């Protein structure tokens, strides 16, 4: 009985948390980059909203950028931490978009030496450690 009040408080806090909805912003790490999509293991949502723990996020190639995307690999790499917006919720996954300036990679690493890359606000980025030039869809102005 000692912890009953605390348990009740925790339970009511859980009940107050709202599930994510279309239009909400979520964060996660890219676990796979495929030809037509990236798959993201979602970590959390803005405003402390609740994600289904088992669900992952998918960004299809057409939702990567406002511009035409030929190679999704030029924008994202496995391991990048991404900020994206929910455009559809299915029983299996969240469909996401990064086709806005303030959406995209918030943390990425050099493909050659694994050094963390510094977002310079452009698509092309040069690793200050090894000098390798690579492309990434970093968030802009956030
Ligand atoms: Zn490097």
Describe this structure in words.
The structure is a single chain. This protein is mainly beta and 142 residues long. The chain has one domain: OB fold (Dihydrolipoamide Acetyltransferase, E2P), CATH 2.40.50. Helix content is 9%, strand content 33%. The chain contains 1 helix and 8 strands. It has one helix at residues 4-16, and strands spanning 25-33, 37-45, 56-60, 81-89, 93-97, 104-107, 124-126, 133-135. The strands form 2 sheets. It has a 5-stranded mixed barrel with strand order 1-2-3-5-4. Strands 7-8 form a two-stranded antiparallel ribbon. A hairpin with a 3-residue loop joins strand 4 and strand 5 (93-97). The protein starts with a helix and ends in a 7-residue tail after the last strand. The mean pLDDT is 90. The chain binds zinc ion. Zinc ion binds next to loops.
Give the arrangement of secondary structure elements.
Blueprint: H1 4-16, E1 25-33, E2 37-45, E3 56-60, E4 81-89, E5 93-97, E6 104-107, E7 124-126, E8 133-135
Parallel strand pairs: 3-5
Antiparallel strand pairs: 1-2, 1-4, 2-3, 4-5, 4-6, 7-8
This protein binds zinc ion.
